[in-house]
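Lab notebook, entry 134. We have the chain sequence and a SMILES string for zinc ion, and the next step in the workflow is to get a structural model of the bound complex before anyone spends time on docking refinements. Request logged below.

Task: model protein plus zinc ion, output structure tokens.
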Amino acid sequence: MENMTENNHELHCLECGALLTYGRPDRKFCSPQCKNRWHNRKSRQWHYRQARILSILERNHTILDHLLRMGVKTMEKPFLAQLGYRFEYVTSYRKVRNRNEFRCFDIQYVDTPSRLTGIALVPSGEDGFDPEGV
Ligand SMILES: [Zn+2]
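Result returned:
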């Protein structure tokens, strides 16, 4: 809740909910302590969100990695979705010759409406990654 009140003339501290009876109309906290607590919690929430995004990317990478190990370079999206793949999470994107090339860490693929194709390790030399170790 972002400083929501039932009526317009009552403002409450974002942290503890105490009624703010004085101060500027854009005041949000009853005290510096509440302000600090609120910002600390926001910061923690940001870190939780980052961790959640990272775990989704790791799952995507695990799925792509398994496909690669099985020699699979193209996979239908519904099947990937069943495995828990989240198409909206990528680590990079670029347009290459009218193709939408995405990356999940060191694995690249082309995203088409129905499938992921061209699943491959990012060529060695790019991003300093060398899959063959040569
Ligand atoms: Zn407060």
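Notes for the group: The two ends are 55 Å apart (CA to CA). Worth checking against the assay data. The chain has a mean pLDDT of 88.
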